[in-house]
Design a protein that fits this description.
alpha+beta, 60s Ribosomal Protein L30, Chain: A, Phosphoribosyl-aminoimidazole Synthetase, Chain A, domain 2, 2 domains, six-stranded mixed beta sheet, four-stranded mixed beta sheet, 10 strands
Length: 335
């Protein structure tokens, strides 16, 4: 984001006004240099993660700018949490169409700054450009953890228990409601339940409060971004294991539970729709109680939903009768 001070362009002024206040880390050099520095403590690894959000794909054009900013940062923080890393900073690339004005930028910067403070993840640098397309926000986030301790997808073993944070399916259902509010009536949702689903789509809740406990106790973990069914299948493939998940044990919010009660077919949307940004993990039986206790102390809901087994990589989602569910597709995919 740096430009020479003597040539204060419109981009320089935009950066100075809206984003320099977010660059609180000394390594950001107040965004007046061409790069930033990140100095990890001795014996630490830097965990790198990048995700982009695009208008019309990940958010609606009329969504509040402060919520768009929060989502853009939080989808990256969610991955750091699943790896057991503490946030250390982020880079921001912001592509803006000509219709974006000052009010939008003020709200966007306020939302981003609030989360940067709350999650202790300062802005380190980035870039701003014009685009003929929709708003596009790309963030590269950095986390820190002790050397060699990152929780990978490949550590699950037969006999491990499968756990998931929070509730599953809210965001995917919230997207459906956001597209057509008549959906809420068909699902018999009152205003409170409807708004809960929409909010979960707009603003995920990354589980960074549980990162250290996951690093200490989980054998494998990943965040749920493309749907529980598809994402856990990726974990099983990386670990070379099979698994069974009991659908009745998958935690649902009151809103999602009401929707599924009104339309049982929505369980597929719940399990495959994505945008949950919860953490699914495996944990050995001896470590299970420790992880549960740590989650309770951190105020993070954690639910056991199944078991890892030996065998070819496969995840079976079992209904109440023990019959496997078959999905039209197992996860969201851009391609």
């Amino acid at each position: 984001m740096a430009r020479e001070a003597r040539a204060a362009s419109g981009e320089d002024r935009l950066i100075g006004r809206f984003f320099r206040p977010l660059a609180s880390d000394p390594g950001a050099f107040a965004l007046i240099d061409d790069a930033a520095t990140l100095t990890p403590p001795p014996g630490s690894d830097v965990v790198l993660k990048t995700d982009a959000v695009v208008g019309g794909v990940h958010f609606f054009a009329d969504d509040p700018p402060e919520l768009i900013a929060k989502k853009a940062l939080r989808v990256n923080l969610s991955d750091l949490a699943a790896k057991g890393a503490a946030p250390a900073g982020f880079l921001l690339s912001l592509a803006l169409p000509s219709g974006i004005g000052e009010d939008w930028l003020i709200a966007f910067a306020q939302g981003l700054g609030q989360d940067a403070t709350d999650f202790r993840c300062p802005l380190l640098g980035g870039d701003t450009v014009r685009t003929p397309g929709p708003v596009t926000i790309s963030i590269a986030a950095f986390g820190l953890l002790p050397h060699g301790t990152m929780v990978r997808r490949s550590g699950a073993r037969a006999g491990d228990r499968i756990v998931v944070t929070g509730t599953i399916g809210d965001a995917a259902l919230g997207l459906e409601v956001r597209r057509d509010e008549q959906t809420a009536r068909r699902w018999r949702l009152d205003a409170h339940l409807r708004d809960h689903l929409i909010r979960r789509y707009q603003v995920p809740q990354p589980r960074n409060a549980l990162a250290e406990a996951l690093r200490q106790h989980a054998s494998a973990a990943m965040d749920v971004s493309d749907g529980l069914a598809g994402d856990f299948a990726k974990l099983c493939a990386a670990s070379g294991v099979a698994a069974e998940i009991e659908v009745a044990r998958v935690p649902l919010s009151n809103a999602a539970g009401q929707a599924v009660a009104a339309d049982a077919s929505l369980i597929e949307t719940v399990l495959t729709g994505g945008d949950d940004y919860e953490v699914v993990a495996t944990v050995s039986p001896p470590a299970y109680d420790c992880l549960k206790a740590a989650a309770a102390a951190a105020g993070v809901p954690l639910t056991g939903i199944g078991l890892v087994a030996a065998g070819d990589p496969e995840v079976r989602f079992l209904d109440a009768t023990g019959k496997p569910l078959l999905f039209k597709r197992t996860s969201f995919s851009h391609f």
